[in-house]
Write a structure and sequence with these properties.
The chain is of the alpha+beta class and 145 residues long. The chain has one domain: CBS-domain (Roll). It has a three-stranded mixed beta sheet with strand order 1-2-3. Helix 2 links the parallel strand 1 and strand 2. The chain is elongated and about 65 Å long.
């Protein structure tokens, strides 16, 4: 059974982060430049404080009529986050995302932050599993003749 560590090994452990002192505009530009839908929010010691996502921009900035040029990430990021550990199964990770209605899960353990697993990572994993199953079935069916 695949675990989160396997997903991180495949996609890499690059972490796109922002500090609470950044403006929402700076964070949004970083998200756009790096083609990500969320940033982990870290302090100066790189400790995980929370996450800042497209959903935060929509609900807490745009819908609230705040100015992204002056609003700090500290004022609008999500602090109460759910995380997983590298040994979390991919199935459990999907269940957590579904139950908690989140699309990004920071991966942490006693050694700190290891990466972020996204709903897209889970989908890519599932597609890969399905392709492998189809290949095996095709081999079985067509090699039987």
């Amino acid at each position: 059974m695949a675990v989160v560590r396997d997903l991180l090994n495949r996609k890499g452990t690059s972490i796109v982060s922002v500090t609470p002192t950044a403006t929402v505009l700076e964070a949004a530009r970083l998200m756009n430049d790096r083609s990500v839908g969320g940033l982990v929010v870290v302090d100066d010691a790189r400790a995980l404080l929370g996450i800042f996502t497209e959903r935060d921009i929509l609900r807490r900035v745009v819908a609230a009529g705040l100015d992204p040029e002056t609003t700090k990430v500290a004022d609008v990021f999500t602090r109460d986050i759910v995380t997983c550990v590298p040994e979390t199964s991919v199935d459990e990770c999907g269940a957590i995302m579904s139950t908690r209605r989140v699309r990004h899960l920071p991966v942490v353990d006693a050694g700190g932050l290891h990466g972020v697993v996204t709903i897209g990572d889970l989908l890519a994993h599932r597609v890969s599993e399905q392709e492998t199953t189809i290949q095996h079935l095709n081999s079985y069916v067509f090699d039987m003749r």
